[in-house]
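Subject: sequence -> structure tokens, single chain

Hey, anyone have a minute? Need the predicted structure for the following. Not urgent.
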Amino acid sequence: MSARGRKAKVRKIKVGIIGAGGIAAGKHLPGHRGVEGVEVIAVCDIVKDKAKAFAEKHDIPYWFTDYRKMLEEMDELDAVSVCTPNNYHAGPTIAALETGKHVICEKPMAGSVKDAMAMLEAAQRTGRILQIGLQSRFNKHMMTLRRLREEGFFGEVYYGRAMAFRRRGIPASPSFITKKMAGGGPLMDIGVHVLDVFLWILGYPKPIKAFGKVDTKFGNRPNVVNPWGKWDPKQFNVEDFGMGVILFENGLTVTLETAWASHVEGSGTTFFIGDKAGATF
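Reply:
Had a minute. Here:
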């Protein structure tokens, strides 16, 4: 076969995973393995048994309990997935960027604005890619809505509502229900997805004013029916409901509503309206 007819050999992208929990096993690992030319070669978790079990179950050759050691010893890593709890995103993300690795970090970006800004600064300083796991942007329907908005199909978009509401859906893990680990409740967990894609479609206008309110009405009670499993109500110290209103420089007003549990079924949908057309999604 001629050189032109030969298929070029592409070097494999080698990835490590930091945090061996459910999101790593259920989303990041199959996501990486679903891409041709990507190989997951290492995993790290501060709990030794979890790291070892994850590696053995998923045929990953190397496992660690210290992400710094993994990053220092494995020069062959091109990228890492950061799958730690929200308040522990910044440390491994910045360390990975500073050792020359690209990073895909689970949403939300961080548990605080301070941590998020430090992560952004590290990415800009090192020239590495930092991608946050806000995958709704890559949905073909969302991309179509963005294109239509850019083409002027909706006209001036002046109001919208971003909804992420559950009837019964409180996560049972301490990594979701404690401020120490999560930083917040459904606003950080599911609200971030809908608000991000909503604003991405609309070109991320500049916010100028906002107010909001959070409540805890179900998570601290022992008798709540929840198909997502049992949790310790005494540990629960984040909100289970949150709302906000945001005013933007271009005149757009957005209402954000999010809840893990509520006494309402089918509470509505996300939408925006312009002076020529509108959309629900």
